[in-house]
Amino acid sequence: MIQSKSKETEDHAYKEKVLEGNVTQSSVRSIVKLKGIRKQYNTGVLAIDHVSLDIQEGEFVSIVGPSGCGKSTLLRIIAGLGDYSAGSVEIASGDAKSKGSRDSGLSYVFQDATLMPWRTVLDNVTLPLALRKVPKAEREAAALEKLKMVGLEKYADAYPRQLSGGMKMRVSIARALASGPKLLLMDEPFGALDEMTRYRLNSELLHIWKDTGITVVFVTHNVQEAVFLSTKVVAMRAHPGRIREIVAIDHPYPRGDEFRSSIAFTELSASISSLL
Ligand SMILES: Nc1ncnc2c1ncn2[C@@H]1O[C@H](COP(=O)(O)OP(=O)(O)OP(=O)(O)O)[C@@H](O)[C@H]1O
Hints:
Elements: H1 7-19, E1 30-40, E2 46-56, E3 60-64, H2 71-79, E4 86-91, E5 94-95, E6 106-109, H3 121-131, H4 136-149, H5 165-178, E7 183-187, H6 195-212, E8 215-219, H7 223-229, E9 232-237, E10 242-248, H8 257-260, H9 263-273
Parallel strand pairs: 3-8, 3-9, 6-7, 7-8
Antiparallel strand pairs: 1-2, 1-4, 4-5, 9-10
Helix pairs in contact: 3-4, 3-5, 4-5, 7-9
Bound molecules: adenosine-5'-triphosphate.
């Protein structure tokens, strides 16, 4: 008898192949496909133009570029949170223009943790599931699992004011993961954190990425952060925002301090910085 593999097993196997750099053209599945995107705001500002980008399942893609080059505009378009003036957006099997983020299996993490101060950590993480009418026991179990993933299960009953900046961001990430998205969009999530905390959260994020098999699109000003995290770095230039170059970061995972202090890391960071 032929047994079909479960979706989870298939996703895991696929992810392992991506991590090993062992994905052939025929096994690659696009999760984000942007073609010729142009966005002109009604103020007349042409934020981005001619942006085409293909992101495969399981990738960790960072977008870097100078302030105002359209990174957030692009991320919002992928999320279905903002419209565009020309081009096409396909997210997995849908078009971001017609699908809200809640329906298309994606979550968004902002620079500010945006937690509700009157709700406990657990109640903040369960919120997206409560809005979807997921039963209480089920949503609390899912939230606790994600809090455990970010190392905060002991703080489930705490309030946001009792947490440090890094802990608040972990809660925000747990909340984004609670609905089990396939695609995680992150807009400068660690921009406000000190360097030590940022390094720690970078490593934790890579663990989560590996464990969940999720695809991540990550906006940052910080070229070193992009190189450390990513399978691929998208370097943008401004006025209007366009993709200057897409640089593959071939260094294997898991990545740690030895990668950060390597010559390859320094060279990649310098060559990407020179593009901006
Ligand atoms: N709602 C808006 N209305 C009008 N113009 C906007 C709006 N949002 C962004 N812009 C303009 O579009 C351009 C791109 O902005 P965007 O915020 O996407 O850039 P960014 O690369 O994310 O910048 P930063 O790194 O500073 O956050 C900028 O010139 C900005 O002023």
